[in-house]
Amino acid sequence: MDAAIQTSSFFWVIIFGYFALVLGFGSFFARYNKTTQDFFFSGRRFSWWLVTMSIVATGVGSHSFLKYSAKAYEHGFSSTMTYMNDWFFMPLFLFGWLPIVYYTKIRSIPDYFERRFNPGVRILATIAILGYMIGYIAIGFLTMGKTLEPLLGLDLYAIIFIVAIISGVYITFGGQTAVIFTDLAQGFILIFSGIIVFIMGVNFVGGFDIFWSALSPEFKLPLAHFNHPANFNFVGIFWQDGIAGSVGFLFMNQGLIMRFMACKSVHEGRKAAAFNVLVLLPISTVVVSNAGWVGKAISVVTPEAWNTSTKLDHVFTQVAYLITGSEVVFAFVIAAVAAALMSTVDTLINAVAAVVINDVYKPLVKNKKDKHYLKVAMLVSAGATIVGAVSTIFFNNFPTLYEAHGFFHSTMTPPLVVAIFLGIFWRRYNTPAAVATFLGGALLMVIGSKYPEIFISPFDHGIEFNPDRPYSYIRALYNTFVCAGSGVVVGLLTSVPSEEKTQGLTIWSLNKAREYFKGGTPNDRPGKIVTVDWSLKDSEEDVVNFSINDMEVMSADVGDLVYVSDNRKWLGGLKSFHSVFGEPHNEDGKVYINKNHADSAMLDERQKLCAEKEL
Amino acid sequence: MLGFERTWLPYLYLYLVGGAIFFIGMYIILKSKSLNQDIEKHKKWFHVLIFGFFYYMGIHAFFIVAAVGSNLILISLGLVLSIMIFHLIINVLLVPKRKI
Lengths: 615, 100
Prior knowledge:
The complex is a heterodimer of chains A (about 625) and B (about 100). Chain A is mainly alpha-helical and about 625 residues long. Chain A is about 65% helix and about 5% strand. Chain A has helices spanning about 10-30, 35-40, 50-75, 90-105, 110-115, 120-150, 155-205, 210-215, 215-220, 235-250, 255-260, 265-300, 315-325, 325-365, 370-390, 390-395, 400-425, 430-450, 450-455, 475-495, 500, 510-520, 550-555, 595-600; strands at about 530-535, 560-565, 575-580, 590-595, 610-615. A 5-stranded mixed β-sheet of chain A has the order 3-2-5-1-4, covered by helices on one side. Chain B is built from 3 helices and no strands. With about 100 residues, chain B is mostly helical. Chain B has helices at about 10-30, 40-70, 70-95. The interface between A and B is large, with 41 and 40 residues.
């Protein structure tokens, strides 16, 4: 098979140079992994800006460039719909799910299900969430294969195999800290390269006025036709992506949840999430879609330049090749897509490892040293990479990546999303109801899938029935409805769980979760940040000692939680640790910490520290 | 001429159904005191949440009008969006201790 786009060896030097840089970057931060807590959650240390940029790289994802460029070329600005409908769930996420997962210190989403219900529901949730994440990894690998296919001319699966090895290596050894830092860099690169493609593309067609007037009014509408055609319509995508996809991504994407849990506090997590949706998502949607808009404008303004046989999933690569006009820039853009792939996949591989270790391995193999679990986590990361690569065979059967992803969201997310939602917000939701959501819901979903004309058509909003792929998107509404219906009916017919059982695990008892987190009554008196020198003390107790006056400034009492970090803000909390306020002394501007604190945060002796009361 | 089903029906559906989800969410977090307006930081979050809803509503309306073409409405929408963003930055984000 010959490559459709010709490149020189210089192009590949740039691509491999970029990969080597990313691997080196990840390996550098791997030294911060001392425990499984560090490997998975980075020791809850980071500032919001660092986390939000790393979320961009995870959220944008490699599949985004290809699938949205394809849909943008076909359907215009309505390709932005999926990035612009996430705000509806923000109240429930920021003030419901986020504080619950943070304060209850759950290690994985299935862990929440065991605490809220029982170990059986945890197993059901584990199966559902592993299926979701492995599917996501597979779509990531498939995307990368399709991006490089026209460049390499190699077999799709050979490319996927190579990419899987490279991705697997650095996540296996790097852990969450490596993921966050490589994603931070890659987030910037992604946005920058997407904007470059847009500017160069508009320039290629002759300026913004020509670009704008080349596109029809229908093409420029931000929302698709209400219910037509079957493979791209507003109402189907609203339920598939705006509801199932958004909630799935925000509430049950273990990788994303782990990112928020790496924030130094709930407040920082909220800032990261809100900034991401308000500012970065609108930018990201232009970044991932514009190649399709530019491609359409090129096909109208200079049709001779456009290869009419370009496959939809190759639109991005084709446009980038046409408009960049320089192999260096083209290599940079392709490297950015590779960056997106690695960012999405690395997060999910790390998340799969977290779920397997915490929800499968630890319950079976108990009382081992943390180093043992860390080693197993690395092996699981490698295994998840292989399983993800093999699973690409299934998703390659769909006509486009967009449809593969849509089917995946509609089918995989509803049971878990409904169980999480009802678990958090409905006190009456009990164990039998949760089991009914998973099993009853799944059964009704299978029946609906078998007889869509009978069961899904009442929900179709007038979308035409396509016998080859019936109700690809709107099935999400049916699936959500039957899962929620099963849970609600059983919940109403069975006994209410005791208040003790749900304490701290629903939105109605968040204060209990905060008490559990602290191990005492939270101190909400507003305080200030202090900057202090530090000295080591000869003690292993996890307490730090400030002066009486400094504690007054922070409005802190003995036993309150404290967050201490290097005073260089640009480090984003990399050199930081959490501890507890101990008995105060009289030396203002000084804190006494122990060797474990200094080692875990890798503190520099010459640098001052900032400290603030947490709770 | 683009029909209603192509232009404003998806918009109305999005903000009626999505709006219902959003405001039920707001009701739940206020009722449960998870968003406690007695706390200064939470007051700001209340503003940010409400802002976000109307901000997205404004962006979508802006682009529909831009596509179907009415400069006067387009400029008005752009102005309203700019004022909202300016209000959020000045009154909520940059003045931490000001009474809202």
